[in-house]
Amino acid sequence: MTGVIPRRTLIGLSTIMVALLLWWLATSGLRLLNPLRLPSPQEVWAAFSQITFGQGYGGATLGQHALHSLFLVAKGFSVAVITGVPLGLLMGWSRHAEALINPIFLLLRPIPALAWIPLAIVWFGIGDAGKIFVIWLTAFVPSVINAFTGVRGVDTVLIAAARTQGASTPQVLRHVIIPGAMPLIFTGLRLSLQASWTTLVAAELVGAFFGLGRVLNVAGQDIFPGMILVGMAAVAVCGAATTWLLGLIERRVINWRPAV
């Protein structure tokens, strides 16, 4: 029915309102918590107003920090998609390619992306290139694994049927393998996107002139809990927005799946 708010949305909004009420009671209402441990909603709003409408914080406004972080995530994630998905498809389709590439992939896979940060600083300095490199490494692994698993999960009967109908290898790949693997490919992309934001903040904590990670780093040094929560909330909002956008793309690409 048009104009009626879905029940799931109402439940989600109610949960958020209850959490905000409990937060206010624990800090401002009953003063159960020390403001240095958990700031009140008023203190967080004051920090938000300062970085957004006032003189800014950490060298820029919240919007500038957020846009810079979005730029880094978009670049690193895009490169991971362009390189990781085709590689996963290739390894899933060709046993020879898997035998050739997989040993190197298995050696590099257990190394946490954060362990590459010192080397990225040596190679690229503390500029954006090193952060994009680390984000790419983080997002690359899930995209490869899920594309590979998606190809191997395609029903062999469908492949045989396409072959029987005279389909060539490129046609089988285009009309059977890739569509069949697409749900798992997007699962990998969601994991990659989430990991990209986690790694971005960690990379910006090490050294950055702009970005949400810099806000968190400077606020931590200044012992400014209100600003720390503002930075965390900004990361959450940006992550949720990019995940929502990826979901829109997924629904357009996989339009044959029923809506959940």
Rg calculated over all Cα atoms: 23 Å
What fraction, in percent, of the residue positions are helical? over 70%
| Cα end-to-end separation | 17 Å
Q: Please name the CATH architecture of the largest domain.
A: Orthogonal Bundle
Topology order in helix (H) and strand (E) letters: HHHHHHHHHH
- Provide the residue-averaged pLDDT: 86
Give the SSE map.
Blueprint: H1 7-29, H2 41-53, H3 62-93, H4 95-108, H5 117-124, H6 128-152, H7 156-164, H8 169-206, H9 212-221, H10 225-253
Helix pairs in contact: 2-10, 3-4, 3-6, 3-8, 3-9, 5-6, 6-8, 7-8, 8-9, 8-10, 9-10
Characterization of this structure:
With 260 residues, the protein is mainly α. It folds into two domains: 1-33; 40-253, MetI-like fold. Helices cover 77% and strands 0% of the residues. The chain has helices at 7-29, 41-53, 62-93, 95-108, 117-124, 128-152, 156-164, 169-206, 212-221, 225-253. Helix 3 crosses helix 9, helix 5 (117-124) crosses helix 6 and helix 7 packs antiparallel against helix 8. The longest helix is centred in the C-terminal third of the chain and has 38 residues, at 169-206. The radius of gyration is 23 Å and the shape is globular. The mean pLDDT is 86.
What's the quick description here?
77% of the residues lie in helices and 0% in strands. With 260 residues, it is mainly alpha-helical.
Key structural traits:
mainly alpha; 77% helix; MetI-like fold
